[in-house]
Amino acid sequence: MFDPVQTHYQRYPYPNYPLIGSVRRCDTYALNLQALWARFNKRLPPPEAEKILIAGCGTFAPYPWAVANPDVPITAVDLSARSLQRARWHCLLHGKLNVEYRCGDLSDQAAIAGEFGLIDSFGVLHHLEDPLAGLKALERRIVPGGILRIMLYSRYARREEESIRRAFRLLGIETPRAARRLFKKARAGSRLAGYLAAADETATDAGIADALLHPRARTYRIDELLEMISQAGLRPLLFAHPGALEDVAEEIDRLRALDKMQRSPGNYVLYLGRNNETTLGKAADSMIMLNPCLTASVSLFKLGTLRIPARTGCCNPPLGFRARSFLRAFTSPVPGSSITGEEAELVAMYKRALFLLEYSP
């Protein structure tokens, strides 16, 4: 059966990152299975949870996920064989061999077998003909306590893109080359000129195609998104888009207020679950450990100040010599009962940033 989305990504694999492009392991801290499982289940992942699914992986996602989880089996699924081939090349070029690649739909049982402790579907559901069916299919693939990360377009942040996308369809503009011809005619001060000045996506054909020529894209207000999540039997665990509040209920209230003002975050990014543990045992029973992705970055031999871009909503503290020395003490797990006073405040800050994990043994 003809699938316009599959045809689109066969023609324009996305994103178009250079194959030699690399990421620091510390920048993948929010993709680490141990860190996320401890955050949302208050313990380390059991053996049956040590599998990751990237549902709609595109050309790049398997690489940073493999950097973050070098010893975890990863299944990468995508509709586009061309996207999968480029993703495979990127991983192979950087020596990442723990990824299995499957061409197919995220709800295709032949393409995806088994259950997973962590599923990522970043920028995918809003391109499906039935996003709710897709989310339900993913919900069925997570083990008890499993975690699902999604990104979907927000209604008001996408107004310019959606206006241009509709105009292009009316004008019969179907290729990046035709779009560029129109871009050259944009008058100074026009909405199109303003968009072009602010949008990074227009630098490449793949970016133009994904942002402005996609055959199917939905946008959501927060209550529409929450209704779909509820119908899939899931609940939000954490909002992770820039500026998101750590408390889920407070962030929902903030997003509803933005909706009333016809404003939105850039996109919605959030972690979902259905039966995750929400409380930790007594402090005397807990352990504190460093996020595995930061081990090399807090080495005694690292100089200067390390800055790690935020991936969980809140800003990350810079890691100078003293901060790295403090975190290095948690390379091996430390009993929570031994943390008191000022150290406890620092631990709380680094736990919020996902740099430290607290779990019941």
Q: Estimate the mean pLDDT confidence.
A: 93
Low-pLDDT sequence parts: none
Q: How big a fraction of the residues is strand?
A: 15-25%
Total beta-strand segments? 10
Strand order of the largest sheet: 3-2-1-4-5-7-6
User: Which CATH class of the largest domain is shown?
Assistant: Alpha Beta
Helices, by number, come to: 13
Order of helices and strands: HHEHEHEEHEHHHHHEHEEHEHE
Query: Strand count, sense and closure of the main sheet?
Result: 7 strands, mixed
Q: Briefly note the structural class of the backbone.
A: alpha/beta
What's the N-to-C terminus distance? 50 Å
Q: Which shape, going by the Cα principal axes?
A: globular
| Count of discrete structural domains | 3
